Write the structure tokens for this entry.
Amino acid sequence: MRVYADNAATTAMSQTAIDAMLPYFQTVYGNPSSLHSVGQEAKEALDAARATVAKCLGCEPREIIFTSGGSEADNQAILSAARYGARKNKKHIISTAFEHHAVLHTLQKLEREGFEVTYLDVKQGHTVSARQVAEAIRPDTCLVTVMYANNEIGSVLPIAQIGAICKEAGVPFHTDAVQAVGHLHINVKEQNIDMLSLSGHKFHGPKGVGALYVRRGFPLVNVIEGGAQERGKRAGTENMAGICGMAAALEESCRNMDKNMAHVAALRDKLINGLSQIPHSALNGDPHNRLPGNVSFCFEGIEGESLLLLLDAHGICASSGSACTSGSLDPSHVLLAIGRIHDVAHGSLRLSLSEYNTDEEIDHILKVVPEVVAYLRGISPVWRDLQTGKRQYIL
Amino acid sequence: MALYSEKVMDHFMHPRNVGVIENADGVGEVGNAKCGDIMKIYLKIDNDVIADVKFETFGCGSAIASSSMATEMIKGKSIHEAMALTNKAVAEALDGLPAHKLHCSVLAEEAIKNALKDYYDRNGLPYDAKDFPDCEHCAHCQ
């Protein structure tokens, strides 16, 4: 049995999305900037895709900029707000300690340029409160950028409340909603969101395409200079197949959202309940306000990469925040930010589900994970020390 | 190409010499939990020969495979041969490790040396301290 439980990394494409893409490889191959009929056919499809994405977010089509993905959208949103702020001598940004690197590294770049960034603490409840945001706002704050939902631990943040606070304070509000779009009900107007980043491949659309919603009138700066595509805000001939595939996938996800949410959250809860039985383990992330598909645990006494390899050998595709899987020497900054110390952060496991997962697959995971954890603990000198009292349990 | 060679996967999936030797003649432990890998080597030594060797490892796939391979390479060998085992030899015997995993083979070499040092210390045997370098040449935990 092969179980794909790494949907936060990427999803399998839906047949709807694949079907929506094919014409743009075969028949509608025109450049939407061309005046002739082949080009205009593509232009119509591009407009339709933009309208679809806008409808799913509750905004106007002209407020959607298509990008190469979530990272580009994050970069553009943050840099735009920073440049706009700097013109008014506002160089303070509020964010959180557990943002995606697309946000964090952009903020670090700005810090080197003289911006000051407040990273809100996420230890309390593995989330941030709207109050934390309110208390951090200063007269020189030019941007609040807070993720909609965390990719590793699944916490869903109080975006509407944060949006209301930002609106009242007159501070632009960006949210990296890559993990939320297509999975949670979003309305950028009702939630007072000024900018929102999304990525096509997180909701069964294609990779290499995303979008930035930007409230009408907010001054964007270009990340990619060139032609006049995307109202001059993002140069480069449009990725037609990608854009149309993403729009189709998003429309399908939004149409089926309530049904998918109920199904996926039930699988998630079954998994969380089952894995919680493993001794000396801990759930990461907000247990209540949580992405429907996210399950994240730390298991004491083992290391995540060996866990992933053994799970893969049993047909289970998952991910971990251990150093060995991150390619760096430190475990995930998200796990460290919520207060997991290195020793246990290395033993993390993320299972992220989609509506394609089944009850039988969850049973398989629940059978295999406890066995593999027990096996690895059995050969671990750390576990021996914990059991013999030479080392104190953390979890 | 897969992350690891077939040899690494074989030793990871079917590690040799896993376990503990009660009343071992030498025990060595290197690494730390903060870095995400700890290796512990137990030696049974008869007449200067590694009569038995066991290991326990907390770590990634290549750490477990390196421990397994290293123990196989010294089992039945003289303590002098065991002292001469290099991380390079362990990595080569595994048909190579990815560059960022080479420190796992370093840990294996050091765990064995650490266990041998423990054996020398317990038996009051003379040795040259420079044969037992600290982890300095490995930047992993710094």
